[in-house]
Every structure is written in C-alpha cells, then in structure tokens.
Design a protein that fits this description.
This protein has 61 residues and is α+β, with helices and mostly antiparallel strands. The protein is 25% helix and 23% strand. A two-stranded antiparallel ribbon has the order 1-4. The protein binds iron/sulfur cluster. Iron/sulfur cluster binds next to helix 1.
C-alpha cells in the first residue's frame, strides 16, 4: 500500500500530518508522504487521513 499527496490540490492544512504522522509530513507549504511503503499498523490512519482531507489530495494505491 502506498500513499501520495497531490501538491497541486493540497492546501497545507496539516490535518493529515496530525492524523497520521508516521506517513505524512509537511514539505514547505504542502504535505507529502515520507515513506514509500506504508508501514504495518498505519493503514487505518492513512485511510482516515485520505477521507478527512478537505480537498481530497491524498491518493492511496
Ligand atoms: S489533509 Fe489534505 S490539504 Fe491538508 S495537508 Fe494533508 S494533503 Fe494537504
């Protein structure tokens, strides 16, 4: 499982970095996924972050 952030959509609200800090971090004004593969145990918070992102910038594949 992998997650990515569309930097063109991200508003930098930092919600995903608070919901799932093991996977998302801020990179200047936008969030980014800091890991390639989502670590075991972080799947649920990644899904929550994707659902809660106000601009639907998080893609999971
Ligand atoms: S929740 Fe969405 S808009 Fe907010 S920082 Fe994360 S990716 Fe960007």
């Amino acid at each position: 499982m992998k997650a990515s952030v569309d930097a063109d959509l991200c508003t930098g609200c930092e919600l995903c970095t608070q919901t799932c800090p093991d996977v998302f971090e801020m990179d200047g004004d936008v969030a980014k996924a800091k890991v390639d593969e989502i670590p075991a145990g972080a799947e649920d918070c990644v899904k929550q972050a994707a659902e809660e992102c106000p601009v639907e910038a998080i893609k999971i594949e």
